[in-house]
Amino acid sequence: MGEETFGRALRHLxxxxxxxxxxxxxxxxxxxxxxxxNGQRKPTRTVVEALEAATNAQGALIEASEKIGKKSVPDAxxxxxxxxxxxxxxxxxxxxxxxxxxxATERRRLFGLAASAGIxxxxxxxxxxxxxxxxxxRSAEDWDIARADHLHALRTRPPAQVIKDLSIDLYALRxxxxxxxxxxLTELYRxxxxxxxxxxxxxTRISDHGAAIRWWSTARKTADASTDLELRLLVRSEEAIHGxxxxxxxxxxxxxxxxxxxxxxxxWPRLMTARAKALALxxxxxxxxxxxxxxxxxxxxxITGDRWDFFKxxxxxxxxxxxxxxxxxxxxxxxxxxxxxxxxPERSYQYRMNxxxxxxxxxxxxxxxxxxxxxxxxxxxxxPAGFQTNHILETARMVLRAVPLEQRERPAVAELRSLLALxx
Length: 424
Prior knowledge:
Strand content: under 5%
Structural class: mainly alpha
Number of strands: 0
Distance between the termini: 50 Å
């Protein structure tokens, strides 16, 4: 009876897709899928999870498989995901630590969620199962290296790739947090907050603002749970500064900054750059410039950024470039942009591209509508599609907004408008 229930569920979820298509997506043989659908075989746990991912079952296949019973079957028909893996035996999540009861149920639930969300596929499920057999949770040092790796990826790789890779580590972190307590759990809260910040940033870069805002909320909650004051300020400053890229109104960003200042009046460079940028967007140029002067005073007194390398000194000239561009101070914008391009590495494509777009903003605002729009379009076209992030496109939209009303029908302006509409 259990086999028939699972088979019916699998047939329903397969829909109009061929047996071969589902089998290839799951990494198992076509004949095995046929036998599963017809109740001739009982699936192993790993096969169920692979089929969950292949059919986006959202837990339905896991639920159906639990009605079959615990008897396992040979796995001779499973196709190994790589030539180096042997199909002699499929890993079962209940094998690890002698898992039973609530732990096993929770682990099955997490796998089901991850598979149905497309976070993990067959090869990743197998890799995590192998990793899980070591009976050693990842250390704080391992997690810090992972944090540094993801932050580097955020600065140098397409954000969609960052989100996919980071989601796997976030899933693994959630598993580890489920079996951790005390001081070790507090440390994992720090890790969770830092990874959530990177995820929210990456989601902002692909314009998924609703998801990003939810991840900012998660980052705040986990940072607060860690009781680490510096981390709490870091999370809030990152949320504020990335909110300026079309995610939130500048007034809302100023409210976020003020809320962060209620936690601590300690001078925090990233919050100050966010405040200066928000003020510039609101045409409060004098206040923006004053905020930057205060920031310089604090930096000269030895105030530094965070210990996780989110804030870098090169972000100060970038903020100066931003404020000068939106204040239409072409000379100051040129000087700040030149400094940015001298000190920011080539691989940090987003900062460099936006600094160049600041020039287009100033040019367009000061009467060079065609020239500024043409420069912005050329800069965007020079980037591969995966690197055309929301941050860059939103800055290009600022070029359009800077064009005087009487010049908004110029040919190059219209072309830039069309280009941005295609990327919307």
